């Protein structure tokens, strides 16, 4: 399990290295990988602990799913700030405040904070595989799902899997937009 955990963080760091939101939160190319690893770690661990961490392509793709109860937004304080994140605290707080305001909190749901595919594995359908597999389980459980698409490129992927925009994008100050997206559980039986 520890190998899967460490490999998942490494894949996410690689996948998000050039992501517009990651570059806004962590503008220094040299320190971004270590800072992202510290940011991803608690959510990867939480997802793995509940059995909701998903991988595909021999670990080349990772989806971090977090079960949230009504009232939770996934932006709650994770405790003491690791030193790698200290230089970025103002941007992290801004991101958490803006995203947290838009994150639905009135119903229990699955939250997808991160889905990443190693760049060399793009175009193989691994992201779709991860989404389809977990969303089928969510449908069976009657759970809706929420995410913020961090790039215009990822929005169509999520839309193909039933996610819909929940209003205007979240715009980070002097930064890129994020698109909050929600998906109700499907009640259709396969074949209908």
Short description:
The chain is α+β, with helices and mostly antiparallel strands. The chain contains 6 helices and 7 strands; from the N terminus they run H-H-H-E-E-H-E-H-E-H-E-E-E. The chain has one domain: Aminopeptidase.
What is the subunit organization of this protein? single chain
The number of strands is 7
Question: Using only CA atoms, what is the Rg?
Answer: 16 Å
Q: Domains counted in the coordinates: how many? A: 1
Query: How is the biggest beta sheet arranged?
Result: 7 strands, mixed
| SS field, number of helical segments | 6
The dominant shape is globular
Helix and strand sequence: HHHEEHEHEHEEE
Q: What is the CATH topology descriptor?
A: Aminopeptidase
CATH class wording: Alpha Beta
Overall pLDDT level: 90
**CATH homologous superfamily (4th level) name:** Gcn5-related N-acetyltransferase (GNAT)
- Cα(first) to Cα(last) distance is 38 Å
Tell me the helix content: 25-40%
* Percent of residues in β-strands: 15-25%
Global structural class: alpha+beta
Low-confidence stretches: none
Proper CATH architecture: 3-Layer(aba) Sandwich
Can you give a write-up of this model?
With 192 residues, the chain is of the alpha+beta class. The protein has one domain (2-183): 3-Layer(aba) Sandwich (Aminopeptidase). It contains six helices and seven strands; from the N terminus they run αααββαβαβαβββ. It has helices at 2-16, 20-25, 32-49, 89-102, 126-141, 155-160; strands at 53-56, 61-68, 109-117, 145-149, 164-165, 170-171, 177-183. Strands 1, 2, 3, 4, 5, 6 and 7 form a seven-stranded mixed β-sheet that branches. The longest helix has 18 residues, at 32-49.
